[in-house]
Amino acid sequence: MEGKADLHMHTTYSDGARTPSEVVVSAKQAGLDIISLTDHDSVSGIDEAIETGKANGVEVIAGMELSANYNGFEIHILGYFMNHRDKSLVESLGAFQAARRERAQRIVDKLNKLNIPLDLDDVLEHVTGDSVGRPHIATALVNEGHAASYQQAFNKYLGDGRPAYERKHHFSPEETIQLITQSGGLSFLAHPGRSISEELLLRLINGGLDGIEVVHPAHTPELANYYRGIVNEYFLLESGGSDFHGGNKNDNETLGQYTISASCVDVMRRRLVS
Ligand code: AMP
Ligand code: FE
Ligand code: FE
Ligand code: ZN
After folding, report:
1. Measured between alpha carbons, how far is 199 from 27 in angstroms, rounded to an integer?
2. CA distance 17 to 165
3. What is the C-alpha to C-alpha distance for residues 165 and 104, in angstroms, rounded to an integer?
4. 13-47 tens-digit pLDDT
5. 187/159 Cα distance (integer angstroms)
């Protein structure tokens, strides 16, 4: 039987609940042969996963998930097969993380102005990986008794347009694709969802996009087929995965359910060497 690949998984280095090693072991148990760790703005978990993968017979491909700004919307771009030790890649990710810390401080300042006494340290306690984000602030708000639930923290304070919301600085799609390409990787539009405008698609392809994430829990089988058609029409590559967050998003049963075949990964490799 052909191997199964899940090329979208998060660990404690971003917003997943499991360490890279735990993710590899879970992947093995779910019958996966190839995985990619795609932490948000981080490549820090990859070496550990490769090691554990070797011991467990799971192939681990270097990956990451970056956010880009398209006309004020946030789109996600996945990178695979980068040299995750590339100096300028590591420096750029370091700059993203510093910018996230500054933003977290600005959110805390806004909360303080709303008479909510919270310190950045209360937030950083909950950060397991490299990047601090609104989920950590929401957890801190609940923990310190300022919100009844995680969701309420977003609804009252942190969600888009709410009083403590702060924008994140984002690269353009082109800059994001370049960062991936320059470190030797292939770039994929992550979970495009309901539809993709032709304008965005052509802009991304002109910017050097290599493929689309066709298989994803947010896509029905019909939608996946639609994107597979686009992939074929524009000579792009197909990717897919579970977007597993280690149970953080009630996603335990998704593991092993959202996969692409190992031959899709072979096609990616051929694109790399050509
Ligand atoms: P950040 O990158 O810091 O802006 O945080 C983005 C993350 O916050 C998303 O991936 C979600 O997990 C979470 N999030 C954003 N908006 C909401 C919302 N309205 N309700 C619950 N979670 C949210
Ligand atoms: Fe995530
Ligand atoms: Fe995403
Ligand atoms: Zn993701």
Report:
1. 36
2. 24
3. 10
4. 988 899 999 999 999 999 999 999 999 999 999 99
5. 28
Higher-pLDDT residue of 258 and 16 is: 258
DSSP 84: T
| Cα distance between residue 67 and residue 73, in whole Å | 10
Q: What are phi and psi of 213, to 5 degrees?
A: -80, 105
Show the ligand 1 pocket: residues with CB < 6 angstroms: 133-135, 151, 154, 159, 168
Q: Count Cβ atoms within 10 A of the Cβ of residue 247 and give its class: 0-12 exposed, 13-18 middle, 19 or more buried.
A: middle
Closest-CA residue, ligand 1 atom 17, reads 159
Name which residue sits closest to atom 10 of ligand 1, judged by CA.
Answer: 135
What is the 136 CA–ligand 1 centroid distance (Å)? 10
Q: What is the pLDDT of residues 98-108, one digit of tens each?
A: 999 999 999 99
Taking alpha carbons only, the member of 147, 166, 144, 48 closest to residue 100 is 166
